[in-house]
User: What shape does this take?
Amino acid sequence: MAQPKVDLSKLDTGMAGPRAQVLVLGSVHLSEMPKSFKPESLDPLLDRLAAFKPELITIEAISGEGCDLVARHPAVYAPEDVDRFCRDPSPARAATGLDVPAAIAEVRKTLKTWPAQPTPAQRRRLAATFLAANDSASAFVQWLYLPKSERHVGDGLDAALVALLQRFETRNNESFQIAAPVAVRLGLQRLYAVDDHTGDNVYIDDPERYGKAIQKAWDSAGAAALASRKQQDTLTEQSQMLALYRLINTPEAQRLKIDADFGAAMRETSPQHYGQLYVAGWEGRNLRMVANIRAAFADYPGARVLSIVGATHKPWFDNLLGQMQGVDVIDAGKILK
Assistant: This one.
């Protein structure tokens, strides 16, 4: 095997200036929580994340710019796939008069001169602009800042957009239930969407056969992986969210999960090499997501960054971010103690 000719691991030795601190929080997808789930059970987790004092928070969502891109290429990205991840921005465009590119430009302009004590009208206008930019989570951050008496129509928010923001208040989604409340606690004005499905847009000749092959590989999970899943299910049913997050962020739980998922896929024996296609798409997606994280704090040397992502991404995120110059990856276990 060819070995790297240039060792980059010590390039930042003796660097001038502060090092960035990045905490990757592996998360469950709250949309999959049972009906017994109590959002207030997240409070101990939020306390620990806020104590880390991130200056920038990234989330597993596609940016407005990314959604705008894939929507313009229906021959490459199937509209039914796009609709799973990207909200229709047309209602916000009708309310604000801004299409996605114009809204993104307006957000940038607004935040450059954002006052220390914005008025409710300014927050409503920024929330509407974020919605027009197809950045729902950042719009919700602005909504949470508003006193309940100020959460109403006006300044770009029409009745439809207000109803949308009100629905976000009770939506089980880690961007709304974890990232946004932490941002508000710390005085942050926005979140950064870093997901990217252009990297996993792999051609599959027979989706049904592909799905069966991958499911068969997953069904081969060993006893240890099954026991870990059962433990996670028990904590989920009991709404012991801090204990659950502590568990899924341990190296052992992650090793068991990725071996039962991607390791099993690499051992899958279909003549079409479906398992390899699956892993290739997964790695392409993670590479682009980590690139988006790096770009998000490129303008902020020494930033403290919280990246909230599905737990199965965490090993890739930790490994890839650990190769970046001037970046330290923080042990999530220590933060969640």
